[in-house]
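Q: Entry one of two.
A:
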Amino acid sequence: MRLVRTTLTRRFTFAIVAIFVMLMACPVQSQEGKATSAEILTNEAIIETVTASVDRSLDYLAKQQRPDGAWDGNNAPNALALLAFMGRGHVPGRGPYRDVLEKGKRFILRTQNADGVFVPQRNAGSGPMYQQGLAALAMAEMYGMDPDPDLEDALRKAVDLLIRCQSNKGGWRYQPKKSDEDLSVTVMQIVALRAANNAEIPVPEETIDKAVAYVKSCADKAGGYGYQGPGRKPQTTAAGAVSLQLLGHHEDETIAGALDYLASLPVEWGNGGGIAYYYYFHYYAIQANYQAGGKYWSNWHPRVRELFLSKQNADGSWDVPGGSEGANVVGPNKVYWTSMATLVLEVYMHFLPAYQR
């Protein structure tokens, strides 16, 4: 099974409007049967509201960037911030955020070591593969917009590393070497490989087949995917579903049960329904529902959209809801949360090829 290749195209404003109208014309009823704000708003108002929200968040993120081009000493939020700008259609070398993107790109490239790992020196002792997957994804998406030879060389090294350190079962773990595996790390490497393949960096078919087999081995009979084997935690279920979808296995028999389980979960601010790692969960859950389309997408996205819009701070940032991840995950800043919330809302915009159907 080969990854499906897509070509990044510049979308004009009228095309984006058409996509928003199509995707957002899905009303949702509250449990009491009353109309929600998603029903009351016109399509044009929704377009304006979401676009304004994303633009406020990008303005906030631009102001948080350090002179060296980083947002944090950890490349996970650095990569997510770059993806947030690209998810709105901003590209290196052009537009109001051209310097933000160029400086961010250069910082991540400077952190790559001889083995291909994107890890700032002061984080070298920690398990780097969360950072690696997101940094490789950001560099792959950027390479589709920016044919920089330095970017290509770094991306090829990163892809070679992912191929080399894939476990015998087909997954990845915290360290860049063959060992054991878990789904929360594996999904990040899968999305990075999908993006690299889209950018014409070849990925062996064997690597993809092994990754598919590992994700399927985490499927639970009750519907869902587990952390290192059969199970049905919310965050790993979202990760497992989107992994198979992005690898071209939309019709896999394990996905329907996973999507039904996700549909049963509450859309609340905080740890409702036992949903830990809140932004991680929603980052993958909205993608899985978008890839599925139909009733799953119609049920999920209006509720998530309205919740995230209502919780954005006046300065464009988002906070961590109570009962979820703590600031100690990546450091005391809002860049991680704001970037992920922005990417959730940008699912409507379709600028990032890795997330397209």
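Q: Entry two of two.
A:
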Amino acid sequence: MRADSKSGFATLIGRPNVGKSTLMNHLIGQKIAITSHKPQTTRNRIQTVYTCGEGQIVFVDTPGIHKAKNKLGEYMVHVAERTLKEVDVILWLVEPSDFVGPGDRHIVEQLKKVRTPVILVINKVDTVKKEELLPAIDIYRKLYDFHEIVPVSALKGDNTDVLIQQIFKYLPYGPQFYDEDTVTDQPMRQIVAELIREKALRCLEEEIPHGIAVSIEKMKERPGGKVTDIEAVIVCEKNSHKGIIIGRQGAMLKKIGSAARYEIEEQLECRVNLQLWVKVKKDWRDSDYLIKNFGYNQKELDRQ
């Protein structure tokens, strides 16, 4: 490690679906955070690590800041807003539009409460013409005094190297927090649970996904390390949802399982025997016990 290396924490914030998880996955070169076109995909505060010759950036991917409708929602918003005060630099992701809705205005109000440097990251620039970017930059610049404004495409990786350099400008000098080969602090069981939830989010109808969680009941490597047995439960809130998740003759559950198994095998680098079940736990999102039970960080909940 160089004597002049920097290490620090950067958080990604923004309305749901602006591409926070996609950007983080691209920056660290590995899929850790699940992605979906549906809101509230990220529920936990996930830390991933980027290490290079210049130093180390620990990315904290938070749940989207939004108006909470239940205890899980309150927990998610609390985690996201508290993180703003605990990091060295904030990356606020927005889309290239000159319309600023109530969700973004709420984020501006949160940013005005902290002294942390803020970089405005305009994502999805591959979806607009260059001349359409200027009105978007102009309107956001009037809302807040940003330290930097960086247009990127998280999907294509455009300009992400520039973003990395801008982040390092605001990090303190100091030793690394993690070993060079560390990419996340998430336990593998949690990553597996999130991959299964991602596939369910992508396969299921609009009204169900917010009300599902995944619990890993068993995850054990067979002798020799070539096969891992995983038993997981998809938890939903209604009996009608259970039927939809299972599908006719189990077709939907099989589809979710097949898609999840493929990516889990890539993560574990071995064959996976995945068994899925579906259980109904009514109103689990309003139960402190069940929220904790489904892997949402005990310490985060206790610190509320």
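A: Comment on entry two: The CA atoms of residues 66 and 131 lie 30 Å apart. Residues 188-302 form a domain with the GMP Synthetase; Chain A, domain 3 fold (CATH 3.30.300.20).
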